[in-house]
Design goal:
- The protein is α/β, with parallel strands linked by helices.
- The structure holds 5-S-methyl-1-O-phosphono-5-thio-D-ribulose.
């Protein structure tokens, strides 16, 4: 997507030095635009764990490049296989919920194993990393086209009034390599001249909505309003939301959706108010082994400080302030699971399907268990 008129992906290989991966360090947005250089698998693991990069698709692409860096590093030593599987374990342990992470690592290991020499293995690791990133961008672009048709239908009923979309967290281009999942239909609708307005939930505790989604929509010129997370139900009751589009970090092949914590409450409010609730996802976020999302999807728990504090920019500096009493314990659940019966539809790169096993498996028969 474009920032001040210049096209960026969220992660790319340095054209003049293919041993360097560059990425947008999201910790400083929206106030500073910082590009980080990553040269080792350790640095990539830190970037994922500490959320310099985040969002399901981008975590997968970063893991893909992390495995390429691991192959480069292992290539200069005598224990290639051992080093590579150590790097895979290190990357796998960074964040538990987004399935794109383990999917990218498994794909790298499988492809690298096909080659005979170390030099060939490095070439294959690079090719696979680029492929994962390119596929992610292309699948999100296609999600945009399928979601556009949905928004267009709603726009036809609104007689030139703006379609109000509500989204949670950041399933934008910053969460992927390009376009985003939930935002791809929004960008496509906006680019096609449909009048549109987006309600952006701030998404405590890390505020991916107010920091990231609001910033990227603004850069693209999409009208939007940031709201407190708890205002979403109120807006739905008043008829001020035409549809919700959210992303997902892992969706079971039966249609249960794990996404940023707070999504479930929005889905409940959407159901109660007859507002369509869509989940946009590339198939790389479908877990083909998990049947019961509530029981099986691992939910990341992060440190209590994120809940007890708030952070932002003051006088050109990034500062953190304490909100909760020092003595109060805090629990920080990163994600929740929305059961399939609350989901109106899944917007995938192959079109819109229902959130159930039959519909998902007939859209992706080659993956069905
Ligand atoms: O913790 P994050 O920022 O990596 O969480 C991921 C998300 O941004 C959301 O859950 C998003 O809606 C799905 S990721 C495409």
């Amino acid at each position: 997507m474009k920032i001040r008129g210049k096209h960026f992906r969220t992660i790319w290989l340095e054209p003049d030095d293919q041993r360097v991966v560059r990425l947008i360090d999201q910790r400083f947005l929206p106030h500073r635009f910082v590009i980080e250089e990553v040269r080792t698998v350790d640095e990539m693991a830190t970037a994922i764990r500490e959320m310099h990069v985040r969002g399901a698709g981008l975590i997968g692409a970063s893991a893909g490049y992390g495995m390429y860096l691991a192959a480069l590093e292992a290539g200069s030593r005598n224990s290639f296989e051992k080093d590579l599987s150590g790097a895979a374990a290190q990357l796998r342990a960074t964040r538990p919920t987004a399935v794109n992470l383990s999917r990218a690592i498994a794909r790298q290991l499988e492809n690298i194993a096909e080659a005979r020499t170390v030099a060939e293995k490095v070439v294959i690791a690079l090719r696979t990393a680029n492929l994962i990133a390119d596929e992610d961008a292309e699948h999100c672009r296609m999600i945009g086209q399928h979601g556009l048709a949905l928004i267009r239908k709603i726009a036809e009923t609104k007689r030139n009034k703006a379609v109000n979309v509500l989204t949670h967290c950041n399933a934008g281009w910053l969460a992927f390599v390009d376009y985003g999942s939930a935002t791809a239909p929004i960008y496509a609708a906006h680019d096609n001249g449909l009048p549109l307005h987006v309600w952006v939930t701030e998404t405590r505790p890390r505020n991916q909505g107010s920091k990231l989604t609001a910033w990227e929509l603004g850069e693209h010129g999409v009208p939007h309003t940031v709201i407190a997370d708890s205002a979403a139900g109120h807006l739905m009751q008043r008829g001020e939301v035409d549809l919700l589009i959210v992303g997902t970090d892992r969706t079971t092949y039966t249609g249960d959706v794990a996404n940023k914590v707070g999504t479930y409450l929005k889905a409940l409010a959407a159901k109660a108010n007859h507002v369509p609730f869509y989940v946009a996802l590339p198939s790389s976020s479908i877990d083909w082994k998990m049947r019961d999302g509530l029981k099986e999807i691992p939910i990341e728990q992060r440190g209590p400080e994120e809940i007890k504090n708030a952070d932002g920019w003051f006088d050109g500096q990034h500062i953190t302030v304490r909100i909760a009493p020092n003595e109060s314990p805090a629990a920080n659940y990163g994600f929740d699971v929305t059961p399939r019966h609350l989901v109106t539809g899944l917007i995938t790169e192959r079109g819109v399907c229902e959130a159930n096993e039959k519909s998902i498996c007939s859209a992706f028969p080659e993956c069905a268990p």
